[in-house]
Amino acid sequence: MYDIIGDIHGHADALTALLKELGYSQRDGVYGHPQRRVVFLGDFVDRGPKIRETLEIVRGMVETDAALTVMGNHELNAMAFHTPHPDRAGEYLRPHTAKNEKQHSQTLAQLNESQLSDALAWFRRLPMWLELDGLRAVHACWDDAAIGQIESQLQQAGGLTDEVLTSACVPGHSLFPSVEVILKGREMQLPEGFSFQDKDGHARTKTRTRWFSNAQGHTFGSYAMTDPLACDVPLSDTICAASRPYGATEKPVFLGHYWLKETTPKRLAKNVACVDYSVAKGGFLCAYRWDGEQELRDENFVFVK
């Protein structure tokens, strides 16, 4: 059985406390459990005070088969930040803007050159999703079409090569929309005149959606995933027609990414659960203890504050 853990962002102390709460203990310096495994949902780097320690814990568990993991958008961002752009001399796949440098600054400050190079090489080997016996795991959004396209290109290239990474990270390239959906979630353009400030204070006119729900009958405000959006305008026919809700009979799917703010975790749907409760923004690190159930239960969330 699995314990699914959300975004850590360098908060290694919270991670060790949560692992102990879940009954994991160290043996030869690596956390493990006699009957269970962890599924990590990515976003190990940036923001927090103990990024190196977080990577050591997670990698140790993955490499001893005590855990599985998927890639988060911050791992993708890190690879893109350090990969030269093939067509623009002196530039990188992720532009070195003030905003991007600030977001990545703690990783740069806490890892030396060798540690960073080793981490980036490990990120290349991480899957973007997991299809397991009885459950699914992805950082932001399960989308069969996007997964199929990504899988096809990875198989053709033999892995996450520089060419595939470029296609995944540069707008206008073939993989960019699919990877955006899987690692960052589906978004919708707000009606003219509406905007909001995100968690970092940036003005936004697009918002992440409750992609797992049927869009019919929603307003822009009610279909927004987490953003504080006062917009009672009904969704457009275009958005409703394009929505692909997660089927009620599909396997349970577990997500991170969304910086949920509730003080007590709860499922998003009968078979959808997010375990990112904003540990890097004053929240807490969260897990879901899965024992094979196909209808998820709120009482199975475990967290430490």
From TrEMBL:
Protein name: Bis(5'-nucleosyl)-tetraphosphatase, symmetrical
Protein keywords: Hydrolase
E.C. code: 3.6.1.41
Pfam families per record: Metallophos
GO cellular component, one term: cytoplasm
Database matches in PANTHER family: BIS(5'-NUCLEOSYL)-TETRAPHOSPHATASE PRPE [ASYMMETRICAL], METALLOPHOSPHOESTERASE
InterPro entries, per the entry: Ap4A_hydrolase (IPR050126), Calcineurin-like_PHP (IPR004843), Metallo-depent_PP-like (IPR029052)
Protein origin, superkingdom: Bacteria
